Every structure is written in structure tokens, then in C-alpha cells.
Amino acid sequence: EVMHLTVATPGMWTDRLATEVDHRLHAPDPGGVLWWFDDPIDVASFEIECAAQTVRLICAARHGRPTSLMSAVQQEGRAYALSGERGGLDPLASEVLAVLGDDTSTSTMVGFLYGDAAASKLGYTPIGLPERVGYRHAIALQVNA
Fold it and tell me: What is the pLDDT of residue 18?
């Protein structure tokens, strides 16, 4: 697989959240580093996204796309932990993961990683988590492993 830069433009038929979820969790193009045309370009942010996408590419080659909440948490936590991001363990996220870890629905993955507002925006049932607390928890799980 070859890595490349995919520049996306939100609007018309491209929803930023839906595109990011599809890109990260469903791996339609595991070699593509997704960058939004209106995001500021700085070396640190670009390096983080390249490192994270490299992890996703390796995960996709070895295991395919995440098939459960737990596999999504492991993939995304590893992707950002190895890129240098720091997270934070959250007791509520820990409880949700213990109960829903085997759930295979995209709605649960979105609700956990992105939070209730994102889940609602995409038409999914909220699961009780604030914005991106699941991502921070996933990263911390990998850092503390």
C-alpha cells in the first residue's frame, strides 16, 4: 500500500464528521492521509496525522477495519499515542467501554470516540459521553499499556 495525501473540502456533499469517521473507521483508503483544505498547515499537526494514518494502514493490512468498539478504541488509541498525542483516562468512558466493547455498530464507535453531539449529528443515539472524551481515553489506554 502506498501512502498519499487526500485533501478534502467540506460542503455540498462532503460532511466533515461523516468523512472523517468513514476514513478512520471504515478504511476505504488506508493509505490516504486526510487533510482538510481549510485547516492550518503546520509541521507538528501534519506529522501527527501522518503517524496516525501509518498506524491505521498497518492495522488495516493486518486485521482489516475495526469490527467492534474495542478494536476501534485500540486502533485509534494506538494511532494517536504513537503519534505523540497524550490522552486522559476517564471513568465514565471506562464504564461505557466495559459494557459496549463488543458492540459492532458504527453508531457506538462514533458515540464513544467523538461523543454525543457527533453521534446526534449523524443520526445515532447518544451514549452519554462528552466531545472526544473516548478518543482521549483510547489514547491514554495505549500510553499506559
Answer: 92
